[in-house]
Amino acid sequence: MDLLLFQKILLSLIFAIVVVSKLRGKRFTNLPPGPFPYPIFGSWIEIGNNLDQLILSNYAKKFGNLFRVKMGQLNIIVISSKELAKEVFLTRGVEFGSRSRNIVYDIFTGEGQDMIFTEYGEHWRKMKRIATVPFFTKKSVQQYHGAWEAEAAAVVEDVKKNKEAATNGIVLRMRLQLMVYNNLYKSMFDKRFESEEDPLYVRVKDLNGQRSKLGLSLEYNFGDFVPILRPFIKGYLKICKEVTATRLNLFKDHFIDERKKLISTGGREINKCGIDYLFEAQEKGEINDAHVCYIVENMNIAAIGTTVWALEWAIAELINNPHIQNKLRAEIKSVLGPTAQVTEPDNQKLPYLQAVIKETLRFRTIVPLLLPHMNPENTKLGGYDIPARSRILVNAWHIFNDPANWKKPEEFRPERFLEEESNVEVNGNDVKYFPFGMGRRSCPGMLSSMAVLGITLGRLVQNFEMLPPPGQDKIDMTAVNVQFGMYLFKHSTVVLKPIIMS
Predict the structure, then answer these.
(1) What is the arithmetic mean of pLDDT over 361-375?
(2) Considering the domain boundaries, does residue 242 fall inside one?
(3) Which of 352, 348, 360, 355 is nearest to 315 (CA)?
(4) At what angle do helices 199-216 and 289-302 cross, to 10 degrees?
(5) Membrane spanning segments where (predicted)?
């Protein structure tokens, strides 16, 4: 009897959802084309959880540069042309300037109390203004580039001391990850971790890793797309809440409160760092404790993972293309001389180094679909009706690899940025290339990211011949596509043979 009642309730619920969906659909007479949307589940039945750039690129060939994928109750609008990307990011940047959060990121961000995933409006403007001065300006690069150079130098010295590096090779990623953490924590808290074994570093890295794994996974998409399936991910969401609470408490207890205590005692001369600016804004009543924690949370994810991924891809490409590695090394030696180490001011004197970084960010698009945008109100785009609160995905990978935009895009060729694309910059000055996004919601960390990439790659290339491990001709470039990123499937072992600088 109970089972029969349950079946009746379930069928009634499904019928009601279908009727409501059809009634809602009548408001829109010209929706974009796309794969067939089945009742209740939409195109999820056909596509599944893995909505990545390759699948969407194939759909673009079938349905055009603007199409709709109905995933359960969610409208996903996919943009695959530079012209439409410009309209979404720039021309109508306010209209499409909000973020679309899924149920997991609602948990991670306190339903948009952060800076990255909040909707466009006063809160976002305030959070961005407060965070920009300490972290995202040319002045902040000038303030911290010496520390970044010191961290890169420490990487070089540690690798030279490790005899395995020059013979069997090491997983360089692990040491680079520590470097990136120290770059961030120096600017944020005026702190650094002493080694990969530092207990606090291990704890922070572990919790950030858990958060990243939970957020980047595609496994929970069905519960986000189809609300009636949400009970099946109840346990997953519970873990997300537990990890979030633990991380925020860790940031508060070991870093935020420790910094406040240090400032209050004034026992020694204190260098002003990023978190101090947030405290000043808090004292003025502009933000609260939660906002401070969420900015720290955002920085721990946005400033670390993507930088490490970019370094991994660039190093792998340099190893698999030794002529490019040699050409870059020759440029550095020619410009700086035989012994001077690459510094941040040198980056602009080294055009081929910049070209290698640009080509890495094009060819190995770190965030292939960027972060999702959202339109709070019903609107039109490309002549089609776009329902309110649609998730807008711009397939940057497709645009960066479109033969209509690029000469032989399937080739890793840094020279393109010195030849036919010499005027194209990473800031989106040409709308066919925007690795950090464009417009109001572009990545604010572009300046610091480019500086760190230049310093690190420059020093590795001038100090080491980087090679694949014994028995391999190349690094395995198999990629993993996740919710908001693309990274190397294997943490590659790299042989680093020291170069005598003279």
Answers:
(1) 97
(2) yes
(3) 360
(4) 80
(5) none
Range of the domain at 439: 122-498
Residues of the binding site: 443
DSSP state of 490: S
Look at residue 56 and tell me if it is in a domain: no
> Full-prediction pTM beyond 0.85?
yes
Q: Is the dihedral of CA 316, 319, 320, 325 positive or negative?
A: positive
The 3-state secondary structure of 401-415, one letter per residue: CCCCCCCCCCCCCHH
Length of the chain: 502
CB 327 within 8 A of CB 352: yes
Which CATH number fits the domain that encloses residue 457? 1.10.630.10
Note the pLDDT tens digit of each residue in 103-141: 999 999 999 999 999 999 999 999 999 999 999 999 999
Which residues make Cβ contacts (< 8 Å) with residue 180, sequence separation at least 6?
303, 304, 307, 308, 311, 452
pLDDT digits (tens, 9 = 90+) for 192-220: 999 999 999 999 999 999 999 999 998 89
- Alpha helices (H) in 111-198, listed in sequence order: 122-135, 138-161, 172-189
Closest CA to 445 of 108, 131, 113, 177: 131
* φ, ψ dihedrals at 259, nearest 5°: -65, -40
Could you tell me if residue 68 is inside a domain?
no
Binding residues for heme: 443
Can you tell me the distance from the alpha carbon of 12 to that of 70, in angstroms, rounded to the nearest whole number?
Answer: 22
Average pLDDT of the chain?
93
Question: Is 369 a member of any domain?
Answer: yes
State residue 6's pLDDT score: 43
Are 132 and 298 in contact by the 8 Å Cβ rule? The answer is no
Check: CB of residue 40 under 8 Å from CB of residue 226: yes
HEC per residue, 93-125: CCCCEEECCCHHHHHHCCCCCCCCCCCCCHHHH
**C-alpha to C-alpha distance for 330 and 339, rounded to whole angstroms:** 13
Total domain count, the chain = 1
**Tokens 């944020």 sit at which residue?**
188
